[in-house]
Design brief:
Blueprint: H1 21-30, H2 40-77, E1 78-82, E2 102-106, E3 120-124, H3 142-153, E4 163-171, E5 175-178, E6 186-188, E7 191-192, H4 200-209, E8 224-228, E9 233-237, E10 259-260, E11 264-273, E12 279-280
Length: 288
């Protein structure tokens, strides 16, 4: 008798010619597993490179931001200077072999107003007569010179100009003079000044040390004037009156010792170093 199932030999109930689903599952379990091997050294090296690149990029961004801020503040708001001499003592200290005062000036104040009597200001030498004894801080090497110029934009090098610091005594339209015989000291429009910032003991000491060449009496130097200050200019003098080459020393130049307001770099606001002298620099109006 023929087997009625001969036609279905080797087929699964679903018609799968490869056998039952259970048999195939067992075959797959017996198959060799597939593995992926990773090179840990290569991964670590890649992560290290990415970390270094990220750190370098962040550092560059921070440095760029700092430089931009330094440029903006230096050019438009504030700048640091070093007091070059003793001419403003005792208000500002500067001398050979000592810790000269580091001062900060306000560059914005005169964008909205004019200098007033009593302001302590930093200004650029307005004529060549003020440059006696001054030499450029720039290198003679062209490359270094350019680098120093660039650094000065960020206050990392001094500007290539002769900067001085004095106190405004008279402004445009006012007449200033001093006559020892009158006993009044410096006068503006004929009125004696009130100058509490002058240390009279220091003036007497200057007179003694110099054997009298630095001047005594109420003028603390030679008579001068009368000189009428042109509009747009100021007359400046040092607080260490008998030891200051200020406007009096340049009367014979083309500006008669006066300083154009356009040459003023800013108003001194504070001393930031040495730490023992940190504090504000007040503007005492001598005409008040």
């Amino acid at each position: 008798m023929a087997d009625n199932n001969d036609g279905d030999l080797g087929r699964t109930p679903e018609g799968d010619p490869l056998g039952s689903g259970d048999d195939r599952g067992r075959d797959e379990e017996r198959a060799e597993p597939s593995f992926t091997f990773k090179n840990r050294d290569a991964d670590d090296e890649g992560e290290e490179k990415d970390g270094k690149s990220h750190w370098i990029r962040e550092t560059a961004i921070i440095v760029a931001i700092v430089l931009v801020l330094m440029f903006v503040f230096t050019q438009f708001f504030f700048r640091q200077y070093v007091v070059p001499s003793e001419s403003m003592e005792p208000t500002l200290i500067g001398c050979a072999g000592c810790s000269n005062d580091r001062i900060v000036i306000d560059k914005m104040v005169y964008r909205f107003g004019d200098p007033e009597p009593g302001d302590v200001v930093v200004f650029k030498a307005p004529t060549s007569s003020w440059d006696e004894g001054w030499s450029s801080p720039r290198s003679s090497n062209a490359v270094m010179h350019t680098l120093q110029d660039v650094l000065s934009w960020f206050a990392l090098a001094p500007p290539d100009e002769n900067n001085l610091v004095k106190r405004v005594i008279a402004v445009g339209g006012q007449t200033v003079e001093c006559r020892e015989a009158s006993g009044k000291g410096v006068t503006v429009n004929g009125k004696a000044l009130n100058e509490p910032y002058i240390n009279k003991d220091l003036q007497a000491q200057n007179f003694q040390v110099s054997d009298g060449t630095l001047g005594a009496g109420s003028c603390y130097g030679s008579d001068f004037g009368p000189i009428t200050v042109p509009e747009g200019n100021v007359w400046v003098m040092g607080d260490n009156r008998s030891n200051s080459a200020d406007s009096r020393a340049h009367i014979d130049d083309e500006l008669h010792g006066t300083v154009p307001v356009s040459d003023i770099r800013g108003k001194v606001r504070t001393v930031i170093y040495p730490f023992s002298r940190i504090g504000g620099v007040g503007a005492v109006n001598p005409q008040g």
